[in-house]
Every structure is written in C-alpha cells, then in structure tokens.
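Feature request disguised as a bug: please show the residue count (289) next to Class III homeodomain-leucine zipper protein 1 in the output. Example input:
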Amino acid sequence: KATGTAVDWIQMPGMKPGPDSIGTAAITHGGAGVAARAWGLVGLEPTKVAEILKDRPCWLRDCRRLEILRAFPTPNGGTIELIYTQMYAPTTLAPARDLWTLRYTTYLEDGNLVVCERSLSNTNGGPAMKNAAEFVRADMLPSGYLIRPYEGGVCSIHIVDHLDLEPWRVLEVLRPLYESSAVLAQKMTLGALRYLRRISQETAGENLLRSGQQPAALRALSQRLARGFNEAVNGFADDGWTSLVNDGVDDVTIAINMTPTPSHVGGQLGTDRLCSIGGGILCAKASML
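Example output, currently without the count:
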C-alpha cells in the first residue's frame, strides 16, 4: 500500500509540486472505506519520526485518546501493541468513533523502519470488546508508516491511512465527511506530514517567531484550544458535561460542565475562580440543517 499498487491510488486534487510543497499525496476513488497516501522528506531521525507519528493525539486534533493496553516484543526485535483509540465527532449530529487496533513496529532487512496498524476484531482472534456507549466502532484497514533513512539525518516517509468510518450510521447530509478520502488526506495524512515538517524546522532553529514566542508554546496553546472546543461539541459525560435541554437532533442543546479541567479555562487559577463562585462552562449547541 505504501509504495505499490495494492490500492488504486489517484493523485490528490489541488496538490501542486513546488518549493513550498510538503510532499505528494494520493487518494482512492471507490473501494472499501476511505484511504489516503502521502510521501515527504524531513530532517529527523527515523526513530524520532516513528515516535512522533505513533503519538497521534499530539498532532491529530480529532484524536481524543490513545491508550496502549499491552505491548509484546517479537523475536526479530520488533514490538506489537494492543491499542484503544477514541476520535472526536466533527459535528453535534453524529456520534464519535473509536477503534481497537494492533500496531507492529520493526526494522526491515533493508534498514527501513515500518509501523503497521489494523483493526482487531473477534473474527481474527481479538478479545470480546464492547462498544462504548457514546461511540460507534470504526474499522482501520491496514495502515501505517514506512520510514527510510538517508545520510545527513534526513529520511523519507510514506504514510498510509485507510479507514471505514461507518458512514451509514450518520445522517445522509453528513456522509461526505465520512466518505471522502480527500477529507481524510487533509486532516490526517497530510496533517502528519505538516506536523513533522514543523518539528524538523524547530529542531533546526528555522522557525523562530518575531514576537519572541516559542513555537512549541504556541503549538501547545492551539492544541488546548482545539481540544477544549472538541470536548464541548462532543459533550462526553466523563469530561463532566451534563445535558440540561435537548429538544431533538435539529434543535438547540444546552449542556453545562460544572467541573472544568485547567485545559478548558487556561490554568489552575481560572479553575479555582470558577469553582469558588459555583460556576462552570455553559455550551449551547445548535444543529440546523
């Protein structure tokens, strides 16, 4: 999938080569689920690249949680991991998705580092895994990263994302969000390449800001803002959200969070002040089609 023709890839519309291009991208048209493939060069060591890509919540805003439940060494020096992942829904009109996957990391005989991941189900020997109440179980078809080292601390990266997001479980008007390989490519596949490029530039000292702000600090702030917004849109009970008014899927929903975490309000001081006056966060969500 990463370098061959196991999938019928077509060039991503709008991707033009040039000096500012982060790489090349391809998507599928038809076939099972949605799939995207990208290739690029970054000035990082292969192990660092793999470490970043495997930590999906640090670069994918839609990833709520990634938990490694078990890890097993393999005879050739690789590692197999059992992983549970939760993904935010992009809208109040659809439930969030979760995934149970196996991830295999190893060095190949040619020196390339490969990370493969796919869904685990009861039919292929996985444990009986119940669906979480607020999630729809998605399916990850074989996906992963192929990382090739070159001299000078540079490596090339092939990324493949292939998912079945159960589009029939959402309203028809929303299905393009779940059936578009181009959406997957922009959010996830190219998003990973962009993040790696930023980290590479920061490591080389190329990304210093005129204001004197540290890029890592601004990146952490933007991640907190995105996470707080995604939490409010999804309104999970285990994040402290309680629905007060819900007139139906097409009307206004009012939810409140009486125990906001520091990430919601920008620090412990803000949390203490809210709690001292008996306050919280009020969220009004309207989904009108």
